[in-house]
Amino acid sequence: MSDDDTGDSRIGRRWYLRSAAATGAAALGTGAVSAGEDEEKDHKKKKGVTVIDHCGYVIDEPGHYVLESDLEWNNDNGNNNGDCGCNGHHHDHTHACIEIRASDVTLDGQGHTISCYGPLNGPRSPSAIDLDSIDDSIDLDAVTDGSLDLDSLDDSIDLDAVTDGSLGMNGERPRLWEVGRVGVLVRPHHHGKHHKKSGKHGKKDGKKGDSRDRLSNVTVKNLNVERCTTGIAFVHTKGGTIYDNRTDETLVGYYLYRSDKTTLKSNVAVYSGFGFVLHKSSRNTLKWNNPADNWGPGFLFVNADGNALVKNRSWRNAFGAILWRSDDNTIERNEMNDNDFVGLALVLSNGNEISRLEAQDNDEDGVYLLGSKKNTLSYVLATDNGDDGVQLTLSYANALKKIRADDNDDDGIDLDASKKNTIAKVEATGNGADGIDLDYSYKNTIAGNIANDNGDDGIDLDNSHKNKIKNNTANDNDDDGIDLDESDENTVKGNTTNENGDNGIELDESDGNVLSKNSSDDNGDYGYDVEDSNDTQGSGNSAADNGSGPIEISGGSGNEIEVNGQTYS
What we know:
35% strand; elongated; 18-stranded mixed β-sheet; mainly beta
């Protein structure tokens, strides 16, 4: 199979098998799998390694730290596991089992587990981020008069509703350490305080600050965290690594806030509210991670730009991934299958590059763009989804190319109120409704696609104007090959529409369209059916062996359409 083949690509199989030993996730694995040598003395450095044997431990010096055994946060025993730090080794309050406040630190769990056993704020129902309900609530007629406010989408979805505000996703300051227990928390010691430097104005938490305010080169690896509100959190860090960990039954498995250039690799997150959350964090790399069976998104990016999501598997979550106001990310060779809502969703997110994505067997859409611009989707496998293969709503200037959108319950590709998009070299066959469907969509280019064997039309336009429908094949559809309904000033050129159940090309109450150089043979009714439409022009069309004849024009005026060398009006 060539790299360019989108057919049954099963992308990720090779990398998944290659990385299974590292992730320990062939069957969702056992999380961290590495083991180190036993240490005989507690809290003493031996060969440069410091052993941690209790919750409430604060790391405030560079170095290499290891867990001696499993750690339990148990309020019933009296050995500083209760308030977790108030009576701890450093006599320094923390709401984390382990808190790292220094740069150049490695924490190796050696395969051991941190168990919080505390009450969780979640998992919450993902209904507060039910994107499909927003799509249904949009009045497409409002697009025509300009009364629809795109920014109002921000008010339509309350991201904090699913976390009681603990992640701060609709505000500035996350409060995860205030509302619940954290397995491992990495943050500067003065995080959240207003401080001054060199007589100049300091910064408040939530403002980015410069790199001197952040921790750097912190690694957390080979660790399991269960039943904590947050598993592993990096706050105001740069250049860190989160590697070969597993989180279970948390509100958030892995959380990055204002943390850049961090690598998250070969981690597992299961049975939680959220798998991985990046909030106001940029230039991070997430690779070979496996969020599964979570009640919310496997991956959630909020105001997170310029990150790389590569070769991850996000299955059986509410969503495979959601990008919310997150721009210029690279999403490559991921699997986002069998999720309760959508495989990959982009909301108000621009300039992202999505390639070689599997988005199959999701209960709603494979890929969904809402209010998003200038994104590129290529070599996407969006098949067997419960709604559409790819859905664009209020989305502009996106490029969809070399996509397979087959066997979806509704449409292969569906555009609602979307402008200036390009759909090229897409295969949209065997869908329950239309292969490619445009509603209230303007100035789009639909070129070089295959839209065959669909349950309704191959290509359907409803109240969609000034689009270019060129060089497509729309054969063997149950209804029409190409259908224009109340759609004006479109160009339909060079298309093949054969053996459809009704007409090859139909125009109904559609004015000022151009039909030229199309071929329409062996259809059940007419090659071309023009009803109550005005000023249709075109030449060089052909039609043969259609059930009712080459062309019918009924109603309307000003039509001049050449078929088989004869002009009909």
